[in-house]
Amino acid sequence: THLFEPMFTCHLATFVQVVIIGLDSAGKSTLLAQLLTGQMVKTSPTVGFNVGNLDVDKKTSLTVWDVGGQENMRPNWKYYLDDCKALVFVVDSTDRARMAEAQKALKKVLSDERLKGVPLMVLANKKDLPNSMTIREVSTQLDLPSYSPDREWEIQACSGLKGLGLQQAFMSVSKMIKKS
């Protein structure tokens, strides 16, 4: 079963595919639930995916896929990359011990030919918790500067639980898609 059933509306919006990935426990499903419902939702580890439509503005609606991040699920990420117009990579900014693993997972997925030129938004989640890393630290740990100039990327701090920074992040994702 999926947390979010797609909500199809009748206005003339363009549906654009956005894929959210990241390691397990990064907060992807919590973040998507907050974005779509504006409420804190209790989530459990995603087996498979969640999907929902996010209206960014009157003309743009993003179909957002949140794909499970457990190690045994990561090989399946590739099945969600067809027609992907932006990749959102979520990291738990309090989990320093797994940043190398996150960097490796990100590099692997970005090496997929279908993501060539696709913009990347990194969300440093759990900013509301003490001891979270700065976006500069996360950026360095993930080696984001190495992706320039071949790929447009941005990093933003957020809290999936409280909704902080999510609207702004997805407005930026929409702008990056329009530019690419």
From TrEMBL:
Binding site for GTP: G22, L23, D24, S25, A26, G27, K28, S29, G69, N125, K126, K127, D128
Signal peptide range in chain numbering: none
Alphabetic keyword roster: GTP-binding, Lipoprotein, Magnesium, Metal-binding, Myristate, Nucleotide-binding
Family matches, as PROSITE patterns: ARF (PS51417), RAB (PS51419)
Pfam families, A to Z: Arf
Top-level taxon of origin: Eukaryota
Entry GO MF terms: GTP binding; GTPase activity; metal ion binding
Keyword Nucleotide-binding tagged: yes
Binding site for Mg(2+): S29, T46
Keyword rRNA processing appears in the UniProt entry: no
InterPro entries for this protein: P-loop_NTPase (IPR027417), Small_GTP-bd (IPR005225), Small_GTPase_ARF (IPR024156), Small_GTPase_ARF/SAR (IPR006689)
Gene3D superfamilies assigned to the protein according to its UniProt record, in alphabetical order: P-loop containing nucleotide triphosphate hydrolases
Role summary: May play a role in apoptosis. May act as a tumor suppressor.
UniProt cross-references to NCBIfam families, sorted A to Z: small_GTP (TIGR00231)
Family per similarity comment: Belongs to the small GTPase superfamily. Arf family.
Name this protein carries in UniProt: ADP-ribosylation factor-like protein 11
Gene name as annotated: arl11
